[in-house]
Write a sequence for this structure.
């Protein structure tokens, strides 16, 4: 088996008495979509925050491409190739969609301590950024400020920004949230292709999407992973059915 | 030509034409008034880099304004008394050298202040920058070697090669050209990659970090550049008044710079120019009528904050556009 791109071992995080992450271990393998599911409050976003560097875990290790990234900040992890999207869109609101993506292109190219050349006339920024917007189908809205985009468009923009980083792994926190059936379907097709570029750790509530996309699924309940396996194994796992899926699955 | 370019050009021309005309009509007082506008505007252009682009509400920029002023005052005093500086280096009255000293000193002081202050945000950032500035203020007041509470007189205005700086108009022109250079720098910064990162740090620092750009580093560089521009203005201000006063370091001055920017338009290239024009004119016109002119300044500021968020530039040129 290939070495995992991302390997989390015995990760722990408590908020007071609440164990939000209670000894979580999981791996993300090359070329796969690993879905992380679980009821509300299970600690999915907390886990993503710790992997991306927004939160500091109390214990455990996170290895990315064989390197221990536990001591690195969020920006340093992003530079290593760990791209995340946010559950609630997190964008530079005054900037246009294009400028939001340009920021990622600029970050990927290296130093931001360049003081003189105007970015809007810099084709090495505008052209790749425009190409990313075209890929997610947002090119027509390139000049619109992020604050004026619709909810679904902001989700697409989040994906375009992550793409522009040319990452080694994606952490996508509920990319389908609030997108509507049409949007979810087209995003599902899009993510299906995306795994060929880099593996995806996908937090998602939309079970149709999860079952259609995931190579493996981990189920998180009260900060613990109660099961990890292929789609069918998870569907038929009695503990998972009891804790989470209910009769619907 | 956009409406904003037009408004900016108009302000720049106005600020140039009035003192030239006044000079030919033998009214040097108005030249001095215009110089005061140019120098305060330059100081506010500096603050506008941190406050306008970066959203860093520094309530301690008087520290840099005053340090620039004392750089001019101290060098001039040493040169006047023919006392060498540290290590036997001879002092100078040459403005370009003094400016360089002011800029370097402010940059060096801003880095540690910024490194500490930028660990905080919001009200704490405001308070900690204020505290640093007040520390420097009390230090200056209690240091008798350079005038202490009385400040430091500059007996003869410092010199600039090829110009007679004792005359109001040439000195105005020096300040005006430096203001234009400061405005140009502001524009380059705003439109550059650095500016994109800095403005993104103001709008959403998490987003900036998530693409791999550390907000702290960007803000620290911005804070230092901002301090250097304000420090340069401080050196000019001391030469304008032929006096480096501790009041340049006090929190009133920090507040005044923020007021200039709010009046003119936060984050707008010519906001500080418009703000300084309005401020100095009010100070002159209302100040001639009543000692309590600042009461009316307060009313106007209230009006701007409540009804014209974009400041004067917002009224003249419409809302800001981000490409």
């Amino acid at each position: 088996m290939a070495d995992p791109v991302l390997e989390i071992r015995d990760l722990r995080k408590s908020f007071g008495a609440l164990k939000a992450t209670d000894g979580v271990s999981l791996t993300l393998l090359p070329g796969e979509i690993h879905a992380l599911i679980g009821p509300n409050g299970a600690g999915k976003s907390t886990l993503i925050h710790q992997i991306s560097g927004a939160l500091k875990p109390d214990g455990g290790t996170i290895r990315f491409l064989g390197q221990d990234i536990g001591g690195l900040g969020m920006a340093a992890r992003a530079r290593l190739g760990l791209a995340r999207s946010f559950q609630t869109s997190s964008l530079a609101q005054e900037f246009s969609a294009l400028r939001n993506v340009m920021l990622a292109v600029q970050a990927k190219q290296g130093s931001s301590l360049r003081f003189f050349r105007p970015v809007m006339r810099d084709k090495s920024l505008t052209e790749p950024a425009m190409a990313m917007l075209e890929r997610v189908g947002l090119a027509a809205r390139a000049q619109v400020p992020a604050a004026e985009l619709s909810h679904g468009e902001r989700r697409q923009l989040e994906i375009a920004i992550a793409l522009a980083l040319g990452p080694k792994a994606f952490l996508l926190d509920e990319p389908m949230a609030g997108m509507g059936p049409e949007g979810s379907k087209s995003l599902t097709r899009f993510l299906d292709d995306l795994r060929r570029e880099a593996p995806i750790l996908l937090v998602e509530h939309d079970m149709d999407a999860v079952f259609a996309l995931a190579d493996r699924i981990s189920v998180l309940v009260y900060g613990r992973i109660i099961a990890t396996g292929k789609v069918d194994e998870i569907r038929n796992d009695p503990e998972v059915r009891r804790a989470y899926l209910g009769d619907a699955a | 030509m956009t409406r904003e370019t037009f408004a900016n050009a108009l302000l720049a021309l106005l600020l140039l034409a009035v003192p030239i005309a006044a000079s030919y009509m033998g009214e040097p007082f108005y030249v001095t008034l215009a110089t005061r506008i140019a120098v305060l505007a330059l100081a506010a252009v500096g603050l506008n880099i941190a406050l306008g682009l970066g959203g860093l509400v520094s309530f301690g920029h008087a520290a840099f304004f005053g340090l620039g002023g004392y750089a001019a005052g101290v060098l001039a005093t040493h040169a006047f008394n023919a006392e060498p500086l540290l290590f036997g280096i001879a002092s100078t009255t040459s403005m370009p050298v003094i400016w360089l000293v002011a800029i370097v000193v402010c940059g060096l002081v801003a880095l540690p202040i910024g490194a500490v202050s930028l660990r905080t945000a919001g009200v704490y950032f405001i308070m900690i920058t204020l505290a640093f500035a007040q520390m420097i203020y009390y230090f200056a007041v209690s240091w008798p070697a350079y005038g202490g509470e009385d400040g430091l007189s500059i007996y003869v205005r410092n010199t600039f090669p090829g110009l007679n700086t004792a005359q109001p108009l040439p000195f105005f022109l020096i300040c005006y050209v430096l203001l234009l250079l400061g405005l140009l720098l502001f524009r380059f910064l705003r439109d550059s990659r650095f500016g994109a990162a800095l403005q993104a740090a103001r709008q959403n620092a998490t987003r900036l970090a998530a693409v791999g750009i550390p907000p702290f580093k960007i803000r620290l560089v911005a804070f230092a550049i901002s301090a250097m521009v304000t420090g340069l203005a401080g050196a000019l201000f001391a030469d304008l008044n032929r006096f480096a006063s501790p009041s340049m370091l006090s929190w009133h001055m920090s507040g005044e710079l923020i007021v200039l920017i709010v009046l003119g338009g936060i984050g707008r290239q010519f906001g500080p120019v418009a703000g300084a024009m309005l401020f100095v004119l009010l100070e002159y016109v209302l100040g001639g009528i009543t000692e309590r002119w600042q009461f009316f300044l307060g009313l106007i500021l209230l009006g701007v904050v409540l009804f014209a968020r974009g400041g004067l530039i917002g009224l003249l040129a419409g809302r800001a556009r981000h490409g």
Summary: The two ends of chain B are 15 Å apart (CA to CA). The first helix of chain B runs from residue 3 to 24. Chain B touches chain A through 27 residues (CB under 8 Å). Chain B has a mean pLDDT of 94.
